[in-house]
Structure formats: C-alpha cells, structure tokens
What we know:
The structure holds two protein chains of two kinds. Helix content of chain A is 18%, strand content 30%. Chain A is of the alpha/beta class. Chain A folds into three domains: 1-155, no CATH class; 185-401; 404-482, Cytochrome c-like domain (Cytochrome Bc1 Complex, Chain D, domain 2), CATH 1.10.760.10. The longest helix of chain A has 20 residues, at 2-21. The longest helix of chain B has 29 residues, at 131-159. Chain B has two domains: 1-16 and 37-244; 246-329 and 338-351, Alpha Horseshoe (Serine Threonine Protein Phosphatase 5, Tetratricopeptide repeat). The interface between A and B is large, with 90 and 75 residues.
Amino acid sequence: MKNQNHLKYAFVMLPVLLAACSGGGETKQEAKQEESAQASASPEGAAGPREIVVEEGGSIQAAVNEAKSGDTIIVKPGVYKQSVYIDKPNITLRGLRDGDRWAVLDGETVKNDGIIASGHSTVIDGFYVKGYKGNGIMTQGANNFQILNNHVEGAFYGIFPQYGRNGLVKGNTVTGSEDAGIYVGMSDNIDVLENVAYGNVMGLEFENTRNALMARNHIYGNASGIALTIVPGLPVKDAYSQVIKDNKIEKNNIENFAPSSSIAAGVPSGVGIIVVGPDDITIENNEIAGNDNVGVLVTDLLTFGLSNDPKVDPYSDGIKIMKNTWRDNGDNLSGMLGGMIAAASRSGVEILSMGKDRDSCLLAEDGVDALGVDQWTACDPSMTKATFDTAMIKDGAEEPVYSPEQKGRLTYLAVCTGCHAYDSVLHGPSVESIKALYADNPEGLVQYAANPVRKREDFPEMPAQSYLGDDVLTQIADYILYDLGE
Amino acid sequence: MKHRHDLLIGACAASLALFACLQPALAQSGSVLSDTSDVELQQKVQAQAAEKIKCAPLADAAKAQEAFASAVNDKWDRAAVGCAIEYGLTAFDALPQSDERKVAFGLELMGAIVSYFDVIDKSYNKLYESTDTAAELSLRWETNRANGDKVLAALEPAAADVVEFRLLSAAFKLASSQRGVDPMVQGKLQSEALAGLQGVMAEKPEALGGLAPLLMGQLLYALPGFLGGDVEKAGALFERARSIDPNNLAAYRGLVEYHLKKREPEKVAAVLEAALKVDPQALNAQDFVDDAQFLGGLAVRAGREDLAASFNSERAKMLAEKPYLQTRKKAASFGHGAEDPFTGKDSNELK
C-alpha cells in the first residue's frame, strides 16, 4: 500500500504545488503576517477582479458574499468548520497549502455539505474537505466549473457535480465516500483527469452523463473502480459518448460499505470497471489489474433490478474495449457476481458481459479472456480514441441566469434532500410536516432554517443554513410551501 | 381467481435483481444514510412499523372472509390489502381440512399473497427510501413471506398435484425472493421456480391466465445467456401469455421490451396499439394506471409520442374517475428526483 500511496501523490502533488504558488508568494506572506479572522479585499478599492483573503478562522462565506464576479478568494491554511455556498458566477475559491497545512473544511460529522456552488464558471481549488455527511464538494446547475487539487475524505458523495455543462475535475484525491468518490451526475462535456480515488464504494462514476472523458486517473482499493451508469427515474434519461482511457485501475476489492438503504449497496466488489446502461463507451489503453471478480463488467438495468423506468433503455450498447493492459483479474471470485462466473465454470475473466448489449466490440489482437461476448464483433482500429484529449466545449457552455423558482428547486435538491424526505422521516422531519407547520409562513421557515433550534428530541439538531443567505432560503421556502407536491 | 398475476414485470421484475439484494457488511459512520443504519434507531422504527401494520380484530371467520373479499384487490392501499390477507388467513385457518372449499380458497389467498409482493414493491421509492417507510415495507414483505409459507404448507397435502398450486408455489418463490434474501438463496429459489414453471408449461400453460409463460418469459429474458437466459424464447413466451389472456398488459410490456431490444419499431408500435385496445374497465384500476404509465413510457422510448399521449389520456381518465389511485409520483431524496429542476416537470409523467 505504501507504494500505491506514493503513486497517488505522484499524480496529485504537482498540480497542488502549482496551484498553491499561483497568485504568488505575496499571498503566502500575507498568511503569515495577518491574524485577522475577517475577509478583506486586496488591493483595497481596486477596480476589476480582486483577491479576497480569508485568514485562518475567518468566514469563507463572508468572503463569498463580498466577492463579485471575477474575484478570487484565497483561504489561508487552517481549519474552517463551515459550509460554503457560491451562488454567483465566475468566483475562484482557492485554498492555500503550506506543506502539510491545508485550508481544511471540517464538517465535524454534523454539517451536510462542504462547498456547494451553483454559480457558473466557479473554480474550487486546493481544499482539504472532511467530515461532511452529504456532499464534500458539489456543483448544482453550474456550467464551466473547475474542481481542482482538492482532498476529500468521507461524505456520501465526495465530489459531486450535477446538472452541469462543460466542467473539469482534475488533480483531486477522494477517499472514504459511501457512494462514489467523484460522481458526475446528469452532466455534459465533462473531463475527469488525473485524480486519485481509493477507499470508496465506487472510485469514479459517470451517471446519466453525456460526452465525458475519464483519463489518467489512479483508481485503487475501492469496492468497484469505475462505474458508468444510467440511473432510472431521473430527468436525464440517457447516457452516452464516454471515453475511459489511460487510467490505472487496480485491486478494487474492498468490501462494499455503502448503507444498506442506498443503491450503492448493490454495487459488486472486485470489479475494475462496471458499465450499467450507457451507450457508446470506449475503454482504451487502461491498466486493469488485480480486480478479484472481473476486469470489466458490462451489464444492464435488468440484471441490476432497476428496470423500472420505461423511458430509459436498460442496455449498454456500443461498448468498445481496445488496447488495455490486463493482469490478474477474476482470480479470486466472491459474492453473487463471483458465483455467477463460477457457475459458468470460469475464472480469470477480464471482461464479462451479461449478453444483452448490442454493437459492442473487442480488439481481436488483445486476446482478452472474456465471457458473454459471443455477439460482440472485432473493433476496427480506426475507432481508437488515442488522440481524444477533451470532452469539454472549446468556447465554453452558455451560462443561463436561473429564475428564483429554478434556484429554489436546484438548491432544495442539493441541500434539503440530504436530510428530508417528502412524506416520511429521513434524518429530519418530513417535508409534508414542515409544509403543515409553516403553511403560508415562508418567513418563519426561512428564519428557522437560518438559525434552527432543537425542537424535537427524536431528531438530530439541524445545522444552520444561514450560509445560503436569505434570498436563497426564501426561494427554497417558496418552493417547499407553494410548489413541491402540489 | 380474481386478482391479476402480473406481479413481476415491473420494478420487481423477474430479473436476477442480484446486486440489489447484496447486503453490505458494514456502514462507514458519517453520512445521513449510515446514521439511519444505527441499531437503536432501527429497533425503534421496526417497533413503530409493527404497530403500523396491525389490523383491527374481527368477530369471526365469516367476517374475516368478507373483509378479505372486500379489500384484497385495493392495490392502491397497501395497508388495506395487507389486512385483507391477514383476514383471509384467519378465514383459511378456520376452515376444516375436510371442507372441500379449503383448497380453492387457499389458492385464491395464495394468489393474493403473491400479488401483494408487487403492491409492496411499488410502494418503495425508486432510489432511496426513508427509514420509517423502509421498515414498514420490509416488515410487510417478511410478514407476507411468512404468510405464504404457511398457506403453502397447509395446502400441500391436499393440493400437491393441483397444477395451480404448483404454479403459485413457483410464483411465490420468484416474488418473495426479490427482496430480503441472500443472493445465493435467491438463485436457488429461482432455479426451483424455473423447474416448476417448466412442469406447468408442459401440463397446463393456460393455468391462471397464462401466468406460467409470462413468468418464464420474464426469467429467460432477464438471465444472461451463459446462465440459461434466452431472449428469443422469452419473446415467444410473452406472445403465448398474451394469446392466453389478451387483457394481460404485463404480457404486452414484455413483448414491447422484446421488440425494442430487437429494434423492431413496427412490431413495437403494433403491440402498443393492441394494448391500447384493452378495456381498462376489465382490469384492476391500479394495475391499469401503473401499466399505462409504463407502456406510455415505452412508447416515448420508441419515439411514439402519439401513442404515449393515448396511454396518458386513458390513464388520466381512470385517475379522474378514481382519484384515490396511486400516481406513483415520488419526491427527491439525496440529490436525486424525477422532477426536472429547470422546468419543474416530473420527468416520469407522459405529457
């Protein structure tokens, strides 16, 4: 394991150091000289983009609130027991690092979300995020985002961009997520590059995502390494055009530790790459080694027991597997998946297909040991994605201004659903009971959410949501009281 | 037999459902969901669930039989159907072994028990279920499984040679093992069920409205080829099921899926158009609105918005006529929901 950790840092350290140095040593100097816990603008009164420095112990949210489009917020090393919400465009939030000292966001296993951004062109760079119960870093409805060089530990989803177009997730390390370490959901034109994922239920995941690239990542020691999925019941009903190349995917064999009530609990261990439903997938030039059950599993929603959305095509079609390096996969079968392979009197299987996919192919000269691929053809070498280096849009994506209603729905989805179910108890009381309690009283709901007090012994104390600001809280309250469930 | 046996084609399909049944060995502390795995909390919600599923006591077996008959088809109300089955069990137990009505009533009760798994399954949220509802549904599932085991054991001495008994035994194995059992046990039960269904197919495929070809079709469609699955045979079995019962929308669903997979758009359209001719009034109302939503969704997938609109129209009529029916609209959990946050529309609706 020591060697693997070393590899991990080999990927990550350089970008982190570069990031820490960008903006110059002057900023680091300031970190040592200033003791203020307040955000301050620098240089004072300057026109155009500014740097706003948050001293150790200061409020990052205050700096975000102060920032204008184009500003960079520099957060000095130290521990910040906060949640941060970026609701404006073109903000760069950068954590400084001084050796082992990071800008640490610590949710203390009480707060739900570390950093949430709904502003377009947000950059989140260089934070150590730990102890959050829901999302470590999330973007929701943000286009042209960048999530760079962060270390995210724990949380349900480590890094979770959702409903985004044109984004970059690069140079991060994610570990301990009870679902996916990096979870790109319902997004388009996303690059996931040079990240390290270990100790998660799933290392990296594309869910209901179109046009995306996963390259040069190191994914090891998860239950499953990479998951390419289409999840039923969501607004985006398809997933396609994904390229998985040049990754190192090894020894993803840990026991699945997802909570039993989550769909991630159904993910089998011992799998390098699992494909469940998306189409037009290229898996090329990866090193896939030491995954106990199988190197690549191509399956469908029927097999997963999730074929309950008729609008979703449940099959994984157009899978192209070419020029990968395979070693020691499928040699230690376990669980139901292992039982299925054993039932076919096989082991050492590099590729397993459940056989319902169409238009899939293997490069003949690869000589891969495969099962269930009778209907697959030989890939044409011209299908190669060797020169494909980005799925992002050259000129960036459009940046629509969301209406208050859209913001209410997006933020409710990102923040509130982490603890509240509509008609039953999750971690907090049901939304139905909240609607009844605050009927025609959105102001009361806003006030409570901003500064909650414990009302009921049988529920944990709600973390204050004041960081969202009154406007957003009002949008959420209006959505809950006048739209949701009506 | 009054209830429909199209229990397995939907969310609780006769797929392997193998991964969904895997139980994690441990939950890392930290997230909201892992908090809800806390033993003390689980005990508390399970105790609440036990209270919630209790049924009012009835005076005698005659009242119990009456209560069974009056609510057993109310599939929009899982509590009502659950109690109807409990009352049916009371009435069944009260019949002496020598009573010639015992086998017939036992088979009817068994049919209700098998169908109830589908009612429970459809009550789950699609992705994440809250703790209290999950506890209630899980308890209902286990109780239904225990009730089924009991009725089957009581019927076996007198009904082992009855083809409907063997068919319901197979259906029970398939349905009950969709949740809450070890995947290895599930696989074993599915193998046993498949053998039972093959026996029924050889002897009386039309039994219980063609349930055997329907279930066999679902199994063969879901299984991978290297474990005995056969999509072509499945398609033929769905066609057989439809020919036996032209009102069985579950058979139409299987057929549409089969032709979609084969990329046969004209056949897809033909089956959907035929399904639209089925008289909704001949079906259980809840089954109809569920099947119409599913078939309409398949029509969307096939690019036939016009047919989807027709299903939506028929479904809307039924919902307007019977507003107590479940619409299956689910709210979001854990950042996931059917509502499009940009438009506010439920993406699972047909319009």
